[in-house]
Amino acid sequence: MTQATDRPSQVTKMATAIAGNEISNSLEKAIVQALEEARAACQTSGDSSSECAVAWDIVEELQAERSHREAAQQRNSLDLYCIEYPESLECLIYDV
Asked: Are 54 and 7 within 8 A, CB to CB?
């Protein structure tokens, strides 16, 4: 499995892989792959190994990314109103 120092590059590679039009589909595939790798790493290296911890950190980061993207796509009624009427008083934002 990978060493702890390889974690940022692996997360960057996975984040790059999920960019594009098929983000959610690729993200789900990346999560499934990361889960399999994490289970394999823990089975071969032990549950308390650094490889196991790094693998589960990657899974957690990918799941957090999925959650953030889902939250960003949800809009409430005020958001929808402001998209349709951006100049209304309720939608104006002032820097003070």
From this structure: yes
